[in-house]
């Protein structure tokens, strides 16, 4: 009898031990942001109105129509006087970039940000277990991820992924990879490096849909440290609540909204179609459909369902909003009940306006995105982190707050995620924040672009054939 | 190379039997230990006699409640145990792209093109000829249509149409073979090292096949010839997290935009070796796919030597003196590959080698390090761990070097050599052509283990271990179907051109 007891208790305790091990491996799967560092390029790379004008005039293929188009685009872009461009633009070589230019642009970025990030957190490069690099428009051999590993002498068994061509939403895709890896492997530290390479992607032709990209994109980048280590969760800033990806590549019009191709004369540029806002809206709506139930409280969802039901029963199509609804449909649901801050991809003033309208956001909510667009321009995938930096610098982030990140990308994708603030970020100084030096000047009194003042006379010009740039504009 | 640390009887036949007996003993140690235990128990039982046994049985008070509780507990625990096992990842099937005959580049065509394009630098033409003679490539390798023009016309449109041709054909083939519906794909990973348009190639695939909007797509690039295994690694990690899903991986290399147009010698080398090819692979973690899956993924080990400067610079894309872009392959590529392989082996060895080899390796390590005996480092015999080897067909020199390092016979590296001969270096998809060769030869049996090794720029060495799930019949279609009877061919050291 005793023997049987002993044997059975041994067996049971062994099984319990195995189960405990299995359960233990399922813990520590949360994804935390430990810290992040955005890149502020040096001041000699600032693009002023004067300089913008110079670059445009350097392109000998442009005619009056293109100038008018550009004027309209730049004036309504919401981009200010202090954005940054790659160094070779200042040397007048934007039409003949070399491989080395692209590489040094990237080096300037990652050497600065990763160093600051690791130093601040007292980590060494060999502590990093996972590295995900996403730069949409640069593809080199060895990859950028290999360059970073070489520069920082990272470990041999590092898990590394190099994503390209995934557009402005690639940040969220990189976080998705890290989130999935954290579910399988415990105690890992991940580094996500995101940026955009502009050096080799200047369009030197005169196709209007392609020169738009020249005006909007600016230099910038960000490095983010993520972890699932329990010991570091106290020092973490944000915790990932959910992440949803929507891909509309199956639809022809969404797929062709943003395509890199050659124009009639063989020059490569990114074609931004007129249907791009519609494609973005469709993708955004689909994305919201999936993520809304996950982030809003049940009471709000109930209220929304009830209001929809009432509308249907009354059989009342809302006439007032049909005209405006073509641009962006009003959601009719109050997102502020579940989300406190909105991190919108700074794709352009139109994008921010459209999202503000459809989610019914106030100017206070849209301020971080608008100010980022004004100060740093559209830095592609890393723009979300600059917007987050603004909120942090303005001391808006309190413990328990939720931040909703929305991004769009070529293809057409809409990726979004929700972060929860883990500790109070509105006390003390946020070290290394890229907005620290200028946050007091924001929001500025007016963000009207001086471009209108300087070049507005182009609108009055009518004669296409004999049009010549006046001397004073040079 | 090294020998076993017993140089005295190395030529003796008796050594073979000693080795075999030793291997058997160590590998089956636990089962051999069980024999005396069972013998003791049997003797005890016989000694006790039947009445005593019945007495022992009756003295155990079995309450109905106790019985129920304990059986319930056992069932509950075993259910939780089985449900929380890490998911096995299967390779259901894969298909390789067979280029059309019109894209063939025999030696004569290649040399003629070379002479016309590089007419100002006869030394470079001479160099290309010498490379081609010793390359191990055959006359049936293929280049994309844009490269057949004189001079080549590598526009973005042509590159896109090459991508569409190779990727869509391979995927159509995969859908036909597996009966997979496009809308059932949960994860899509595309890896193409040197061509990365916006929208990405993964978006192109999603657009063509109208895949679902909640698909998880990833586009890896710049990761060299080992990117195929990196995609498999990513798929495996994702399949651990998402239950009941499948993943499609597309591995390819688009040659059109990367044909080097200059005349710098070290950069002309890739022109001679890289050829058109692609592969589409379906992986799954569904239990229902267990029966029809071809392989099960056992291990995947990645090693990155980027921290070492020499390794990092050995495959480097740069501009030559005239500003033309090309890939520079350094002269010590072989040595670096050998070192990267050693680093990879030290991790994968303990996972796959039988206990006998590991013990020998451990003993030789102890002897050398602790007792400072002058033994040569013991290279474990990987032929005991694997039945088939798929070595990336990077070039003849790579295959020779690995054959030497791992002490493999000609038959083991036959798949790699024949793939290099028939298809050239198709970069990340070459491993799949080699696997298809082994299957087409009817050598793949259930339970066979395959080791895939790939190298990539950076410098990376990745290896994957697969176990064959079911004996595979010789496929009737596929890239080798029309020529498998001619293989293996004898590839001379130098083919005189």
How would you characterize this protein structure?
- The complex is a heterodimer of chains A (474) and B (497).
- Chain A has a single domain, classed as Thiolase/Chalcone synthase (Peroxisomal Thiolase, Chain A, domain 1, 3-Layer(aba) Sandwich), CATH 3.40.47.
- Chain A has helices spanning 2-26, 49-58, 64-75, 87-90, 99-120, 144-152, 170-184, 208-216, 252-255, 276-295, 298-314, 322-325, 349-358, 363-376, 383-393, 450-455, and strands spanning 32-38, 46-47, 83-84, 130-135, 159-163, 189-195, 221-227, 238-247, 258-262, 268-272, 341-344, 402-409, 413-421.
- Helix content of chain A is 41%, strand content 16%.
- In chain A, strands 5-4-6-7-1-8-13-12-11 form a 9-stranded mixed beta sheet, with helices on both faces. A two-stranded antiparallel sheet of chain A has the order 2-3.
- Chain B is globular.
- In chain B, helix 4 runs antiparallel to helix 5 and helix 11 crosses helix 13.
- In chain B, the strands form 2 sheets. In chain B, strands 3-2-4-5-1-6-11-10-9 form a 9-stranded mixed beta sheet, with helices on both faces. In chain B, strands 7-8 form a two-stranded antiparallel ribbon.
- Chain B has one domain (89-474): Thiolase/Chalcone synthase (Peroxisomal Thiolase, Chain A, domain 1).
- Chain B has helices at residues 14-27, 29-59, 64-83, 107-117, 122-134, 156-178, 201-209, 227-241, 265-273, 309-312, 333-352, 355-369, 396-406, 414-423, 430-440, and strands spanning 90-96, 187-192, 216-220, 246-253, 277-284, 295-304, 315-319, 325-329, 388-391, 449-456, 460-468.
- In chain B, a hairpin with a 3-residue loop joins strand 10 (449-456) and strand 11.
- The relative contact order of chain B is 0.13.
- Chain B contains 15 helices and 11 strands.
- Chains A and B meet through helix 1, helix 6, strand 5, helix 7 and strand 8 of A and helix 3, helix 7, strand 3, helix 8 and strand 6 of B.
- Chain A: Pathway: Lipid metabolism; fatty acid biosynthesis.
- Chain A: Belongs to the thiolase-like superfamily. Chalcone/stilbene synthases family.
- Chain A: Residues 25-313 form the FAE domain.
- Chain A: This is 3-ketoacyl-CoA synthase.
- Chain A: The active site is at 168, 247, 341, 345, 374, 378.
């Amino acid at each position: 009898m005793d023997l049987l007891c002993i044997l059975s208790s041994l067996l049971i305790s062994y099984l319990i031990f195995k189960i405990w091990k299995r359960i233990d491996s399922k813990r520590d799967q949360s994804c935390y942001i430990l810290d992040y560092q955005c890149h502020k390029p040096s001041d000699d790379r600032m693009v002023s109105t004067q300089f913008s004008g110079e670059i445009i005039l350097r392109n000998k293929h442009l005619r009056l129509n293109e100038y008018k188009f550009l004027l309209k685009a730049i004036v309504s872009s919401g981009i200010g006087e202090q954005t940054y461009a790659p160094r070779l633009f200042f040397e007048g070589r934007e039409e003949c970039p070399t491989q080395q230019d692209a590489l040094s642009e990237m080096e300037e970025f990652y050497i600065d940000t990763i160093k600051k990030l690791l130093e601040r957190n007292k980590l060494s490069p060999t502590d990093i277990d996972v590295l995900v690099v996403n730069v949409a428009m640069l593809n080199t051999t060895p990859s950028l991820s290999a360059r970073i590993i070489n520069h920082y002498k990272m470990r041999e068994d590092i898990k590394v992924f190099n994503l390209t061509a995934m557009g402005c939403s690639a940040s969220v895709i990189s976080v998705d990879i890290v989130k999935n890896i954290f579910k399988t492997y415990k105690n890992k530290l991940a580094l996500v490096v995101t940026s955009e390479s502009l050096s080799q992607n200047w369009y030197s032709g005169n196709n209007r849909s392609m020169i738009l990209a020249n005006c909007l994109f600016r230099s910038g980048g960000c490095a983010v440290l993520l972890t699932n280590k329990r010991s570091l969760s106290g020092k973490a800033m944000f915790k990932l609540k959910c992440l949803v990806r929507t891909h509309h590549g199956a639809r022809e019009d969404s797929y062709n909204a943003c395509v890199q191709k050659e124009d009639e004369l063989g020059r490569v540029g990114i074609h931004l179609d007129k249907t791009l806002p519609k494609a973005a809206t469709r993708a955004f709506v689909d994305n919201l459909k999936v993520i809304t139930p996950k982030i809003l409280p049940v009471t709000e969802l109930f209220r929304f369902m009830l209001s929809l039901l009432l509308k249907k029963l009354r059989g009342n199509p809302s006439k007032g909003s049909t005209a405006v609804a073509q641009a962006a449909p009003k959601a009719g649901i109050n997102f502020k009940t579940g989300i406190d801050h909105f991190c919108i991809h700074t794709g352009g003033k139109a994008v921010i306006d459209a999202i503000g309208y459809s989610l019914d956001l106030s100017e206070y909510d849209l301020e971080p995105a608008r100010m980022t667009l004004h100060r740093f321009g559209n830095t592609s995938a890393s723009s979300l982190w600059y917007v987050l930096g603004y909120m942090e610098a303005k001391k808006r982030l309190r413990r328990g707050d939720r931040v909703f990140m929305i991004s769009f990308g070529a293809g057409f994708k809409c990726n979004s995620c929700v972060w929860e603030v883990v500790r109070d970020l509105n006390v003390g100084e946020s070290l290394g924040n890229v907005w620290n030096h200028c946050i007091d000047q924001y929001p500025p009194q007016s963000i009207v672009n001086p471009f209108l003042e300087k070049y507005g006379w182009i609108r009055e010009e009518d004669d296409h054939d004999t049009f010549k740039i006046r001397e004073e504009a040079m | 190379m090294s020998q076993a640390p017993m140089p005295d009887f190395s030529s003796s036949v008796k050594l073979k039997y000693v080795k075999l007996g030793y291997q058997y003993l160590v590998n089956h140690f636990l089962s051999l230990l069980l024999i005396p235990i069972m013998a003791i128990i049997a003797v005890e039982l016989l000694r006790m006699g039947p009445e005593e046994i019945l007495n022992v049985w009756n003295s155990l008070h079995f309450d109905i409640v106790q019985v129920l509780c304990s059986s319930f507990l056992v069932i509950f625990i075993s259910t939780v145990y089985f449900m929380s096992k890490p998911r096995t990842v299967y390779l259901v099937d894969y298909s390789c792209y067979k280029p059309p005959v019109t894209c063939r580049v025999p030696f004569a065509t290649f040399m003629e093109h070379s002479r016309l394009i590089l007419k100002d630098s006869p030394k470079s033409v001479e160099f290309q000829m010498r490379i081609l003679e010793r390359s191990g490539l055959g006359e049936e390798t293929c280049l994309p249509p844009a490269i057949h023009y004189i001079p080549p016309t590598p526009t973005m449109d042509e590159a896109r149409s090459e991508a569409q041709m190779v990727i869509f054909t391979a995927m159509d083939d995969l859908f036909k073979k597996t009966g997979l519906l496009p809308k059932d794909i949960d994860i899509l990973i595309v890896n193409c090292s040197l061509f990365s348009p916006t929208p990405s190639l993964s978006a192109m695939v999603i657009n063509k096949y109208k895949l679902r909007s909640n698909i998880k797509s990833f586009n890896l690039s710049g990761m060299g010839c080992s990117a195929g295994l990196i995609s498999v690694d990513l798929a495996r990690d994702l399949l651990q997290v998402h239950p009941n899903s499948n993943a499609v991986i597309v591995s390819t290399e688009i040659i059109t935009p990367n044909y080097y147009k200059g005349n710098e010698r070290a950069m002309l080398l890739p022109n001679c070796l890289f050829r058109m090819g692609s592969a589409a692979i379906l992986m799954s973690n569904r239990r229902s796919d267990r029966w029809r899956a071809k392989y099960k993924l056992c291990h995947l080990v990645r090693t990155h030597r980027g921290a070492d400067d020499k390794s990092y610079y050995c495959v480097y894309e740069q501009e030559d003196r005239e500003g033309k872009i090309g890939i520079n392959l350094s002269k010590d590529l072989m040595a670096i590959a050998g070192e990267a392989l050693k680093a990879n082996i030290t991790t994968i060895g303990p996972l796959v080698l039988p206990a006998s080899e590991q013990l020998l390796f451990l003993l030789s390590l102890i002897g050398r390090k602790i007792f400072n005996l002058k033994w040569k480092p013991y290279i474990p015999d990987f032929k005991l761990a694997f039945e088939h080897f798929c070595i990336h067909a990077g070039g003849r020199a790579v295959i020779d070097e690995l054959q030497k390092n791992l002490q493999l016979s000609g038959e083991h590296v036959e798949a790699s050599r024949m793939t290099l001969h028939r298809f050239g270096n198709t970069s990340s998809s070459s491993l799949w052509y080699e696997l298809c060769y082994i299957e087409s030869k009817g050598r793949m049996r259930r339970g066979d283990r395959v080791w895939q090794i790939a190298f990539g720029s950076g410098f990376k060495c990745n290896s994957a271990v697969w176990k064959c799930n079911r004996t595979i019949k010789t496929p009737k279609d596929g890239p080798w179907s029309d020529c498998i009877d001619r293989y293996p061919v004898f590839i001379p050291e130098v083919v005189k051109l």
